[in-house]
Design a protein that fits this description.
Length: 248
């Protein structure tokens, strides 16, 4: 089998001087003016663990030094080099459009670490005790306390989300493209991604610092630069339609 790291432009560019997963040599499958960067994979054991993940990322980040890269998700496999060649042929137009869109750009991640729900509960004046109201039994009083608490939580959450979206809008105006996930499943952070020109990366970080200083109620974590996972779709389109698969 073949492990696929990324699709890149400049197929004539030399590959990074490093090995791929399991120490395998990197190679290319070239189609016109793009190439998939791959290595052999014997399939003897499933891909797992931090070492494999970091090796995958290290290969992609090394490619970014000299090429425009469409990163593939960790664990992307193909049956053969011929199969990879066929994917490049059939999805060439979409891949080329993705490469053109992210050329010269990197992804910067931002996460608001505040737990909105917990903040609201901690600050709710009714939290932690049952209200005593003359003429009302403890059951009714408890229900009223819960309603007041939930209303307070919703109001605080709504205010925090408005603040986060205002911050996102300010930062998005300094980026080529952006994505916001303001409904995270774990409720422990709101994530955003920004596509930023590589030569303006430090300027963007300074803007993040200024925004953070102006909004001390938000704990902002800025990460990257990363490969532009959030802003390319051609590689995901291929893997989601059975043309390649993921190791399990």
């Amino acid at each position: 089998m073949i492990y696929v790291y990324a699709v890149a432009d400049r197929p004539d560019q030399k590959l990074p001087r490093q090995s791929g997963l399991r120490g395998e040599e990197l190679s290319k499958v070239v189609w016109r003016d793009i190439a998939a960067v791959v290595s052999a994979y014997d399939g003897a054991a499933p891909l797992q663990g931090a070492d494999d993940v970091w090796r995958h990322e290290a290969v992609i980040e090394s490619l970014m030094n000299d090429c425009t890269v469409i990163p593939m998700r960790f664990g992307t496999l193909a049956p053969s080099r011929r199969h990879v060649d066929d994917i490049l042929c059939r999805t060439y137009r979409a891949l080329a459009e993705d490469i053109a869109r992210v050329r010269g750009q990197v992804e910067i991640g931002l996460r608001c670490l505040s737990d909105i729900a917990e903040d609201a509960e901690a600050d709710c004046p009714a939290a932690g005790h049952v209200l005593t109201v003359p003429g009302i039994g403890p059951g009714s009083a408890y229900l009223r306390e819960r309603v007041a608490k939930e209303r307070h939580s919703r109001e605080r959450q709504s205010g925090k989300l408005r603040l986060v979206r205002d911050v996102y809008d300010k930062l998005a105006s300094h980026a080529h493209d952006s994505r916001l996930d303001d409904r995270p499943e774990d409720r422990h952070g709101i994530a955003a991604a920004f596509l930023v020109p590589r030569d303006r990366m430090m300027d963007f970080r300074e803007v993040v610092s200024d925004v953070a200083a102006a909004n001390p109620d938000l704990a902002l974590l800025c990460t990257g630069p990363w490969p532009p996972y959030s802003f390319v779709g051609a590689g995901a389109h291929a893997t989601n339609h059975g043309e390649t698969r993921h190791a399990t």
